[in-house]
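Hi L.,

You mentioned the student needs an example of a multi-chain input paired with its predicted structure. This one should do, with 691 residues in total across all chains.
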Amino acid sequence: MTDKSPLFEFKDVHVEVEGKEVVKGVSLKIFAGEIHAIMGPNGSGKSSLSNALMGHPMYSITKGEAYIKGESILEMESDERSRAGMFLAFQYPLAIPGVSVANFLRAALKSHRGEDADMSDFRSLLKKEMAELSIDPAFATRYLNDGFSGGEKKRIEILQMSILNPSVALLDETDSGLDIDALKTVSAGINRYHDDSKGILLVTHYQRLLNYIKPDHVHVMSDGKFIKSGGPELALKLEDEGYDWIVNQTTVGA
Amino acid sequence: MKQNPEFLINEMTPHLHRGPDWLKAMRRSDRLGFNEAELPPRGIHLWRYTDPIRFMMDIDTATDADFTGALDAVVKAEAEHVKEGRLAALVTDRGGRDIDVQISPAGLPQGVIIGSLSDASESNFDLVKEHLYQMINRKSGKFEAMNGALWNDGIFIYVPDNVVIEKPVHLFREAGGENSATFPRLLVIVGRNAEVTLIDEYGGGSPDRNKGISFSNGAVELFGSEDSRTRYVSLQRYAPAMNSYFTHRAKLKQNATMLTIPLVFGGELCKQSFGVELAGAGADSKMYGLLFGSNRQHFDNHTLHHHSAGKSTSDIDFKVVLKDRALSAYTGLIRIDNKARTCEAYQENRNLLLNPGTRAETIPELEILNEDVSCSHGATLGPIDEESIFYLKSRGIERNEAVRMIVGGFVQSTFKLVPEDLKDRLSDFVATRLETI
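Structure written out for the whole complex:
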């Protein structure tokens, strides 16, 4: 085990938003095949961490290191991080009026492959992946997220992930805004994507997503730090007892 | 060619002595109109953003237009479209000197006239005399009078009653190179229940300011008779060191419709005015414009919808994309006369700024003289959204490509309004300009 190098790793990462430090030194190693979950109350810094790792211009990493397959990402532009194998499914995906889902995905795929995908290959890939996620084929020609419901946006995020097939997927509150059927469909999509060569980092407030996607490791984040790590049982305890016990315990301990 | 704030049109200028007597008289009248008019005052909206002295070109110091052949390939490609029947006709106008007409193998419907305006002013004396200078003349302004005096030859298009020209007619106007001045002129008469589509393209001009600038001052008059349907695309893609002034006026009678598509891409300084008078009940005018500015391009555009008859409708959507240090001023006037009841008029101007250092001004002007109308106007102005760029980048798309996609998306709503058969041509024109953004 020890000679294996992590697929994705970050060390002592600090993140600032508008001059305020919201992530205060977190570290994690994700090995191929692993699913990690970061859980925590609202405002704990979970989303800031995932946005910063993807290179969002509003979130700056002021200290720390991050690597994908041993390669440092912090000097990379977001598009380079994507092409290096990273993916972030957004909590609130933006609408891009005038750009259709199909054209967007085709452009994204082209940037990854360095050449245009064959049109009929692309069409059948898109059709297949949309069917797997129970997305109406009509969405292919609709403008990206323009007028989509919350659940539709989340499916489209997972569609993008399935098509780009990244090495590491950061999924930011992908379960929020989903009804139970949509949750099952989306979870199935994530499980289909996941295999021994992939790493997943789930960011979630609730444990219900973890009923469908089994994490290997759970990390509890509060006030910009990981305050506890454990196995899947930790998530269940949080579900039963809430976050207060653990936050208080840490405060007392500190 | 020099700028000269004191410039007067010399009585001996050869252009003034072309054509039949009535035309010479009109030219002389516009010559006096130009010479007697003061420079437009900078205090009014229309001249707030552009110094009129920049159009005071001393054409006595201009050199003869030098056609470098840079646009021969474009003309040749268009000529192929004519041969293959995708265009009804191609008219090339080189600096107002030679008007050449190529017609598709299918020929033109009976009675259609497409050709030299000078020739028509003799052979179709009554028709031309009745319309030419009716909307653009010395009363329109100093620079409109300049064109009226100095146009050499222009293009005349006449579509008789009940005649439909199915395919577009492409008018290709080539300006000369550095130090040249050109005065394109167009007169279009669309008969009752007749239909025509025109692509009026302006190209050429000086490619390099260090060698000297070029100047163009154009005028277009379009008359839409009862129940006529006219589609007019103005495609301005002059070379980088062109200063251009352009006036478009159209008049629509009862139930006539007109779609005007200004595509504003080229030149260094470009001041244009597009105006349609809705002079009959049921007349409808739509104007959908796209402007792309980069480097230090300076654009000053006006639109005018004048409802002089009731029950007429108009709609304007003018979109602007600016990069580098480009500037765009847009002034949109809706005028509804007191007697023009139950009109509908809408106007929207949206500006997308790709970087700091660009400047966009938007000035809606409403002169609505009765209450029985439905009218609205809107304007937006803002930088490109960095979060949207990030979203595309997070999927592997490089910044420049992401910007192009977002700009393409921004103009997509205009394409939704464009008729299906024109979409491909227009998106080609736009894509070519977008490549340089």
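You could point out the following to them. Chain A has a mean pLDDT of 93. Chain A touches chain B at residues 54-58, 77-79, 81-83, 87-88, 90, 93-94, 96-99, 103-104, 107-108, 111-112, 143, 160, 164 (CB under 8 Å).

Best wishes,
N.
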